[in-house]
Amino acid sequence: xxxxxxxxxxxxxxxxxxxxxxxxxxxxxxxxxxxxxxxxxxxxxxxxxxxxxxxxxxxxxxxxxxxxxxxxxxxxxxxxxxxxxxxxxxxxxxxxxxxxxxxxxxxxxxxxxxxxxxxxxxxxxxxxxxxxxxxxxxxxxxxxxxxxxxxxxxxxxxxxxxxxxxxxxxxxxxxxxxxxxxxxxxxxxxxxxxxxxxxxxxxxxxxxxxxxxxxxxxxxxxxxxxxxxxxxxxxxxxxxxxxxxxxxxxxxxxxxxxxxxxxxxxxxxxxxxxxxxxxxxxxxxxxxxxxxxxxxxxxxxxxxxxxxxxxxxxxxxxxxxxxxxxxxxxxxxxxxxxxxxxxxxxxxxxxxxxxxxxxxxxxxxxxxxxxxxxxxxxxxxxxxxxxxxxxxxxxxxxxxxxxxxxxxxxxxxxxxxxxxxxxxxxxxxxxxxxxxxxxxxxxxxxxx
Length: 448
Prior knowledge:
alpha/beta; EC 1.2.1.70; Rossmann fold; 6-stranded parallel sheet; 16 helices; 3 domains
């Protein structure tokens, strides 16, 4: 078990704007982990990057090392948008993220898959060691429990469904034509919800047409569908009353030039003829598109009214999940404590084993005549029994010391039994004990 501490930093839909999120987003999760691991004294790293959050977790010798690495990682992002947390709060936050308590849509299902994918990416980059292995797998476990044992994900469960609700609040969807731009996971969720809302036709535009074909083939509701390449966007967007964009493009894919024909519509003053919901991060829709007559553009920040309603409906389930997180967090910290105690116990047994082997060989060399295999086994068995009986009480004491946060005892044991242990490296303890009063570092904190 690593003796380091976890430090985390994040930019989310709560702390930053859509544009600040875009600035913080790495090219990929795997390359971001690789970058963090190049920082001296960073032992492990995990990065979760979605349309609503960019979070980085590192394990270092202390929080100063972690803060320095994360400050550099988020250097291009405004400090006020960055939240940095110490060990305890970082672990609790990761559990909350996986359960959906930190999502725009409370309890949404998509995040658990994103946490898993980020875990695989971090493993591929060599970023997952003993500390983050325990933390991330615990987060996945509690996320699955929350969805199977509570009602946290009933009702509106994704940004795709929130986008449909937002559009339906502005104009009737019955008989409408809807356009989904992007055939990724978010586009699939939006298409599925729109298809179930009573629309007449669904058009999917995507850079790779085969992916769009696969998306419409998986729809659970029968509706007229059409697939077009992204280059043909301008030819279909003007005929759609509802447009939902969800691409991974670095630049806007939809702008005023695509919507110029909207000026030909006979909309009355203040009347909405077309609703565009931009789920892209960074933005899929150029801000100037929202200035056109009869066009309303909503982005991720504008879905708050839908998400607030969902939060109210799921308040009871959220309390159940909070209690579940408390229990699972306690189990995680106990797991860390056992690992630290086991480290001292292993060092003690290894030291005893070295002494035992040396003394057995000395004893056998003093016996007259040739020592038989049977005699050797008798002597070794006696030595093993002595070691086990002598070490049983200190083994129990070390485990009790860890449970009671008596880290000076474990520190002393490691100094006595582990020749490579450096007592000058600082106190040996789970990070929750060592860093209880640590300075959280740059940007905002959860206590602000």
